[in-house]
Amino acid sequence: MPTPAPERPDRLLQALVRAAGRDPADPVALETCRSLLPPGGLRDARARRALWPRLRALRARAARG
After folding, report:
1. Dihedrals φ, ψ of 63, to 5°?
2. FRET pair for 39, CA 20 to 30 Å: which of 16, 25, 31, 50?
3. What's the CA angle centered on 30, arms 25 and 34, to 5 degrees?
4. The dihedral of CA 14, 16, 21, 22: what is its sign?
5. How far is CA 2 from CA 5, 22, 45, in A?
6. What angle do CA 13, 43, 20 make, to 5 degrees?
7. Total-model pTM
8. Over the stretch 17-42, which tens digit does the pLDDT of each residue have?
């Protein structure tokens, strides 16, 4: 029985990973950014606004090293 292919991240997730200053090919970075997304996605403006402080913190952490 063949193993299933890993789930390909959507464009929003890839953009979040890049905005966080991480490598989009890194599975850990993908999972970290995926955990930041609310279950309903970012359709709601409140959800989008709540994401930015977390994203800035990730970017600052990546810059430090």
Report:
1. -70, -35
2. 25
3. 160
4. negative
5. 9, 31, 41
6. 30
7. 0.59
8. 888 888 888 999 889 888 888 777 77
